[in-house]
Design brief:
Number of strands of chain A: 3
Oligomer: homodimer
Strand content of chain A: 5-15%
Largest sheet of chain A: 3 strands, antiparallel
Chain lengths: 110, 110
DNA sequence: ATAATGATTCAATAGTTATTGAATTATTGA
DNA sequence: TCAATAATTCAATAACTATTGAATCATTAT
């Protein structure tokens, strides 16, 4: 993953609203959720939700698919996994072990 | 890790300057770097660097220690590892495997 | 066709973030 | 003490982000 992509992902995740939306879509699984469902579930006004969904989509963290007059959103798990890989490669210096924290071995460079 | 902490970390990592600073400090290892070294290495004016170091410190991603008239900064690897754990717990839904991406098994809930 | 529904875009506003140069604080060295 | 050095804070500005309500666009149902 290149740096601009990583920055966009971090910026997208730096809002409580967007983090909540993304988590909801992760939990929703492959079916995702239409905008109205997200709006209702998280109690976010449609216009504000649109704003944040746009940011998430621009960062690539969610995809949008038209479904009649609904708009269905899904989490892009692959990008999140890539992001975790990016952080992993940037988080552990020489000889630093991640075992201490309960993260699986092999995750960090060390 | 709680949500406000995660949000602060993501916000801190959402600036190219701060990401560069953090990576530099990770590479520097336990010795860290004094502010002037960071400023010179990344070609960032001292006053702007102070601004971004403040953000990183507030998020907990770096620590600062006075050393004579210098200020030594170090990366907080533990917090980064916690952040990776946070993302891991929020990235993989039911039955989603991370194997595809080359991330070690056991990382995702699966 | 027309009305109703789902969602987005637009316009306005308030608040926040990034950057720069000048001023300030603190420590070291002559 | 006095000048020099390291770093931060302050003040000003420009740019961006978040939120809301009104308006618009597209699709569905009558």
């Amino acid at each position: 993953m290149d740096k601009p992509t990583a920055l966009q992902v971090f910026e997208a995740l730096s809002s409580g609203v967007r983090l909540d939306v993304f988590r909801l879509l992760v939990q929703a699984g492959p079916d995702g959720r239409v905008a109205g469902e997200i709006s209702a579930a998280l109690d976010i006004p449609p216009t504000n939700l649109s704003f944040h969904l746009k940011g998430l989509a621009q960062a690539g963290l969610v995809t949008a698919e038209q479904e009649g007059r609904f708009q269905r959103y899904r989490a892009n798990i692959a990008l999140m996994v890539d992001t975790i890989a990016f952080l992993t490669e940037n988080c552990c210096g020489e000889g630093v072990s991640c075992e201490l924290t309960g993260i699986a071995e092999g995750v960090c460079k060390s």
